[in-house]
Amino acid sequence: MKTGIDAISFDVANIHLPIKTLATARNIEPEKLEKGLGLIQMTLPDVHQDPVVFGANALTKLILDHNINLNEISRIYVGTESGIDSSKPISSFLISLIEQKFGEDTLAECDVVDFTFACIGGVDALQNCIDFVKLNPAKKAIVVTTDFAKYDLNSTGEYTQGAGAVAMLVTSNPRIIAFDENWATSTKGVFDFFKPYRSISKEAITQNTNNDLWFDNLEAEIEIHKDQPVFDGQYSNQCYMDRTRNAYFSFKKLKNTTKTLYTTWNSIIMHLPYSFQGRRMLSEIYALDSAEKIISENIEPADYQAKIKEVAKSEEYRNFVTEKLQPAELASSLIGNLYTGSIFMGLLSTLAHYYDTNKEIAGTQFGFLAYGSGSKSKVFEGTIQPEWKAALANVKLFENLKESKEIDFNTYESLHKKEQKQSVRTPKNEWILDRIEKEIPVLIGARYYKWVD
Ligand SMILES: CC(C)(COP(=O)([O-])OP(=O)([O-])OC[C@H]1O[C@@H](n2cnc3c(N)ncnc32)[C@H](O)[C@@H]1OP(=O)([O-])[O-])[C@@H](O)C(=O)NCCC(=O)NCCSC(=O)C[C@@](C)(O)CC(=O)[O-]
């Protein structure tokens, strides 16, 4: 029996800053961001949006577009690293909103939980749901990935920001993609990117007007949690490369094959913290694998680097990128990093590209290289199913992205600093953040949401 993704939907911020505008303001060469990293624009939440809003909107679209009977849903598992509460998961917010719209107790017997492991939490949720459906073929599960990839102003992460969610229905005999048995994992505990609690003095709080700090108590030293990560960009790239390479070669071992897998894959879907990350990182695997070298082989560091550089610049590799990776990059260039949702937005971008260009891909294999900081990679593969086009008919990814509203630099900074009071876009047919109940001593308390027609 096959198991995989039967339906998919998304919700992104729908307001964006052109990368050129940011480059000019920050005195960065626009060509570096556009041609070097593949960025065109970045999205960020409007005043009424947060990760609960994105997740609830993607989930509501999934339910409405595919007439999902909620009584059939046994699990809603959320991948996120943007939790808004240390105890109450985003999935708990989602069930209350869905029941608000579709009827009380419609999800009363549904199991819900959040998975957090940086960007790979959504893949963990998916793998778990696939195993569940394999054991219970009559049951269905939903995976929601939702995040706001927010970085400090003036940091090297600033131009990779993005916000939004992807929701997927996981069933037996799925219409879009069925996953194969083998999943390879590579893990190592590192500090490449993380969001620690930080201490701040009581005096500093009274001076602080930035609402994105979360205050736990008002004793002398206060523990706060910040949305923006602590990270080391180049080291995080190295960790990404090490983990995905190890998982890729473990995957080959699991499959007991010496074939270059990327040639058997019609498309390659990688975690994309920015559009060109996949193509910049995959050249190493490409070089090692095409030279039929195995990872344990001792290669002189000097030769090794030279070989990778040579491959990355070759026409053969450029053609390979255009054919296998570029379709996944298209949406990323227009949205930015979605953390847990990035790899699934890459899948959606590829499917939508082939849908819009009327190319039949049923029966072809897609390879997945997932990464989450901290760090972990998973490599797996799946086969596109005959009904993928019918399942995708309502998604209209690129049409929707064209509707995004451009903002200017001042609006961007004021949204980032949470100084903006009015929404940039008037919400319609969607969930919004209605109010945050502020209590003393908990400065930021319960969050309330409502549906706007
Ligand atoms: C990703 C970095 C490190 C990039 O860092 P950076 O310093 O902005 O860029 P760079 O120097 O690494 O690369 C610039 C590229 O532009 C090229 N370039 C230069 N000038 C020009 C020009 N004029 N015309 C054309 N091209 C130009 C230049 O040649 C180079 O391309 P290359 O040759 O190396 O392929 C930075 O953006 C960053 O710190 N980002 C935040 C962390 C991050 O995204 N890390 C990625 C790996 S970790 C990950 O993916 C997990 C994550 C982040 O999603 C979190 C999670 O798991 O939750």
How is the secondary structure organized here?
Blueprint: E1 3-12, E2 15-18, H1 19-26, H2 30-36, E3 41-43, H3 51-65, E4 73-79, H4 90-102, E5 111-115, H5 121-135, E6 140-149, E7 162-172, E8 177-187, E9 193-194, E10 197-201, H6 202-207, E11 214-215, E12 221-225, E13 230-231, H7 233-255, H8 261-264, E14 267-270, H9 277-290, H10 301-313, H11 315-335, H12 342-356, E15 365-372, E16 376-384, H13 388-392, H14 397-402, E17 405-406, H15 409-416, E18 430-436, E19 447-452
Parallel strand pairs: 2-17, 4-5, 4-6, 14-15
Antiparallel strand pairs: 1-7, 1-8, 2-3, 6-7, 8-16, 9-13, 10-12, 11-12, 15-16, 18-19
What can be said about this structure in brief?
The protein has 453 residues and is α+β, with helices and mostly antiparallel strands. It has 15 helices and 19 strands. Strand 11 (214-215) and strand 12 form a beta hairpin.
Written description of the protein model:
Keywords: Transferase. It holds the Pfam family HMG_CoA_synt_C. Residues 5-172 form the Hydroxymethylglutaryl-coenzyme A synthase N-terminal domain. This is Hydroxymethylglutaryl-CoA synthase. It comes from Flavobacterium lipolyticum. The chain is an alpha+beta fold and 453 residues long. Helix content is 38%, strand content 25%. It has 15 helices and 19 strands. It has a nine-stranded mixed β-sheet with strand order 5-4-6-7-1-8-16-15-14, with helices on both faces. β11 and β12 form a beta hairpin. α7 crosses α9 (277-290). The longest helix is centred in the middle third of the chain and has 23 residues, at 233-255. It is globular and about 60 Å long. It binds 3-hydroxy-3-methylglutaryl-coenzyme A (HMG). 3-hydroxy-3-methylglutaryl-coenzyme A (HMG) binds at residues 29, 31-32, 35-37, 81, 118-119, 156-157, 160, 193, 231, 233-234, 236-237, 240, 271, 273, 277, 280, 337, 339, 371-373.
